[in-house]
Amino acid sequence: MATAAADDDVKLESFLQWLQSNGADLRSCTIRACGGKGLGVFSTAAPEPGSNDGNAPLLSPESTRLIWTMRRRCAGVAMVVPLDLAITPMRVLQDPLVGPRCRALLEDGVVDDRLLVMLFLMAERRRPGSLWKPYLDMLPSTFGSSLWFTEEELAELEGTTLHRATLIQRKSLQSSFDEKVKGLVEELLHVDESASSVEVLFEDFLWYVIFLFALKAETTYYNLHLIIPFYHLD
């Protein structure tokens, strides 16, 4: 338990340094543990009259409507995150390492904007020296979705509609992964010699799918072509 907490502290410190070095500004907020539920963004400014105090998180694993929450609880701008830190189709195409190949895939109609961002995020999550590593290390690594269940956990659902639905969806996802996703992600990874031997697993694809489902469920404002820090901290 102590080791896990120490690892979390190291990841958080690395993330904060990454934000600062890339121009982000936590003007009137801080990041700290959120009651055993991961990390939350807390206001350090005086609360507006009638609002919750600084002990209430502006953003936590249970509240990801970032702009709405921050404007409600504190006056002014709580934080500034440069657009350069958002993973968008344009940002992917501008990447010096994989941008040219991604542009070719997009122009040839092999991928669309949505798939482009997915492939990039999956590749960067497995790339040892990724620019995005401090941020990606902060994202959830496990989920409560039945898609993430082990075979033993899934067996406990036998006889239920959830069990059948999960198997059907996993089969469909496995097919998509085998036929298209795996090869494309490994192609982007292997552009980098340091990742030339990295094999992309089905679990990597499941991670992205469930992560995206979580984002869609938590905010109606989320853009499927945009991944931006602070929308989903673990």
UniProtKB/TrEMBL annotation:
It comes from the Eukaryota. InterPro entries: SET_dom_sf, SETD3_SETD6_MTase. This is SET domain-containing protein. It comes from Zea mays (Maize).
